Amino acid sequence: MLLQNYSEYKLEAGTDESGRGCLAGPVVAAAVILPDGFRHSLLNDSKQLTERRRLELKTIIEQEALAYAVNFVWQDEIDQVNILNASILAMHRALDGLEVRPEFIIVDGNKFKNYKDISHQTVIKGDGKYLSIAAASVLAKTYRDDYMAKIHNEYLYYNWKQNKGYPTRQHREAIKEFGITEYHRKSFRLLPQQLHFDF
To answer: What's the rounded Cα separation, in Å, for the pair 153 and 150?
Structure first.
């Protein structure tokens, strides 16, 4: 069973991102404040859940959270600031979107930058330890997956509906054959031996 809070504060926000390792598309972050006493036996790190279970939990989280927000940082901005800074920026912007001001923030991973004057704690593999981070991971992943499924139809040969922009063999073979799109992250190593692309 995942833990409710890291701190003694009731208004503790969990935040997480999705898509950091992708070759295409945005990095998406969510921030969630759950009510005191919230429990759900199925809530876990989004990577451990089936797509169907994530969608079920998304509805529950959005209905029961005290506050939640999701933010996209697009590939052009990722290329400008790098993926680590883009991930943190997405989490900060998600926190900006919360209708309830958190008293404390817990963050999945080991890198974060101070957010306003609110104390925070990074937690390695926090999406498998704390409910609010797990909830944020579910929202971030479901929103990002939905977006990648929408743009899949523009460029079918990359198969983003299935790989979500991650560096699968099929995705890289398509890049090698067809080149890149406006959705690709040009600062990333898109192929094992990077080819020259005309942007």
So the answer is: 6
Tell me the pLDDT of the chain (199 aa) as tens digits.
899 999 999 999 999 999 999 999 999 999 999 999 998 888 988 888 999 999 999 999 999 999 999 999 999 999 999 999 999 999 999 999 999 999 999 999 999 999 999 999 999 999 999 999 999 999 999 999 999 999 999 999 999 999 999 999 999 999 999 999 999 999 998 887 654 444 4
Domains of the chain from N-terminus onward? 12-149 (3.30.420.10)
Q: How do beta strands 12-18 and 27-33 pair?
A: antiparallel
Of the candidates 161, 140, 163, 166, the residue with the CA atom closest to the CA atom of residue 151: 161
